[in-house]
Amino acid sequence: GAGVSQSPSNKVTEKGKDVELRCDPISGHTALYWYRQSLGQGLEFLIYFQGNSAPDKSGLPSDRFSAERTGGSVSTLTIQRTQQEDSAVYLCASSLGGSSRTDTQYFGPGTRLTVL
Amino acid sequence: AQSVTQPDIHITVSEGASLELRCNYSYGATPYLFWYVQSPGQGLQLLLKYFSGDTLVQGIKGFEAEFKRSQSSFNLRKPSVHWSDAAEYFCAINDYKLSFGAGTTVTVRA
């Protein structure tokens, strides 16, 4: 079956530009997560959506980062006024969402963002 | 707060030899632990997970892990490594969001 998909796979942008990264979760998964993977910081949690509940935004590094999830499915992570330190691989994951601590999160291939 | 430590940044192993990757966790309650593998340019693939019960869990690709509460460890093992096992391995603990260790890169030599 189809897994988590992300687009674009690679994005190169100039400092100061805004970027949007997209995630399509596995059909039927109610929980969606964004993580960031960078050389200096490893794998970091960014934001978590569960059904219609308010998202857990505790991992967003600054107010330049935002995310939304439309119709309980597709999610978009937006980074405004990009900085060079935003360069990283952004990973999306989804899970069934019934019991979050035991849920298995399935990851997409990631979007590699390079800020020049 | 929960945390995971992977003490080994890089391990080199000969093809056919055994492999053990270390993971130590810090968590105040019952931990929910996962091992993921990431091949170059790929996303994370789940190898195995531990929630409760038997302390030895089996995963995909011939991997297993042993949970030891007394040592706060969840080490990953494989009896005989294949060249395709060269990848980066991450231990993670789940508290509604995953907290990952720094990862261990495994190199397999012929």
What do these coordinates show?
The complex is a heterodimer of chains A (116) and B (110). Chain A is mainly β and 116 residues long. Chain A is 0% helix and 47% strand. Chain A has strands at residues 5-7, 10-13, 19-24, 31-38, 42-50, 65-69, 75-79, 88-95, 106-107, 111-115. In chain A, the strands form two sheets. In chain A, strands 2, 4, 5, 8, 9 and 10 form a six-stranded mixed sheet that branches. A four-stranded antiparallel sheet of chain A has the order 1-3-7-6, with no helix packed on it. Chain A starts with a strand and ends with a strand. Chain B starts with a strand and ends with a strand. The mean pLDDT of chain B is 94. In chain B, the strands form three sheets. In chain B, strands 2, 5, 6, 10, 11 and 12 form a six-stranded mixed sheet that branches. Chains A and B meet through strand 5 and strand 9 of A and strand 6, strand 10 and strand 11 of B.
Condensed summary:
The complex is a heterodimer of chains A (116) and B (110). Chain A is mainly beta.
